[in-house]
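R.M. (postdoc): so does anyone remember the format we settled on? I'll just put the structure tokens first.
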């Protein structure tokens, strides 16, 4: 039996020449996550506040504390709790009056949703923009009080009231910037001065402004 010796056959050049390295593509960055949700949350984030507010419901004026505030709504505290779904008018310093509806209530806490987004920059504005000065809401009152001026005490009528001041009737002729003291039953005398005088009424400015418990005590 005849055995054939193995013949060494050269491989084709295409098999023996090393293949050129394929160019490596730079890593593709993952698409950036959309910021829509984040930005929306930023717009809806509540500002922690503690301020007085006023509600108008069925021609009835009500006092409230504003606890939280956003462009779309507010969390308030009030002794007269409106029902869910009720529509009302809301007002506070630098905001409103604006229309809102009650979306939840829990105890004396109430959640409001504004009909239209509100500009929160106005809430912190204290008159820095030309032609604009934020004012605290004023509450109509029907109370008798006394005003002490230059050692004399006169009986007056308290027409309306805010944390910063009051409108008084029956005080007589008083000069602007005259120091005075307002005396109301149930609270300590409050110092201040005459801010304006016209048509038989005077504006009284509290110094310092009323704290929230005192204001609530006067109005309730």
């Amino acid at each position: 039996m005849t055995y054939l010796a193995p013949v060494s056959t050269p491989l084709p050049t295409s098999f023996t020449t090393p293949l050129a390295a394929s160019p490596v593509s730079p890593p593709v960055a993952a698409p950036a996550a959309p910021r829509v949700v984040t930005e929306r949350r930023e717009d809806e984030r509540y500002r922690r506040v503690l301020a007085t507010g006023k509600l108008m419901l069925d021609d009835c004026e009500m006092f409230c504390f504003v606890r939280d505030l956003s462009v779309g709504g507010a969390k308030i505290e009030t002794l007269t709790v409106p029902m869910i779904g009720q529509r009302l008018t809301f007002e506070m310093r630098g905001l409103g009056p604006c229309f809102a509806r009650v979306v939840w209530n829990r105890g004396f806490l109430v959640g409001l949703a504004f009909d239209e987004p509100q500009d929160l920059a106005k809430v912190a504005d204290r008159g820095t923009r030309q032609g604009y000065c934020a004012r605290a809401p004023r509450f109509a009152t029907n109370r008798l009080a006394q005003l002490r001026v230059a050692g004399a005490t006169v009986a007056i009528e308290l027409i309306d009231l805010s944390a910063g001041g009051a409108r008084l009737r029956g005080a007589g002729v008083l000069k602007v910037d005259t120091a005075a003291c307002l005396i109301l039953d149930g609270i300590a005398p409050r110092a201040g001065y005459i801010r304006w005088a016209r048509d038989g009424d005077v504006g009284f400015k509290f110094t310092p402004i009323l704290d929230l418990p005192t204001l609530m005590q006067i109005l309730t």
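R.M.: ...and that's the designed sequence above, right after the tokens. Also worth knowing: The first strand starts at residue 47 and ends at 57. Helices lie at 13-16, 36-44, 121-124, 212-219.
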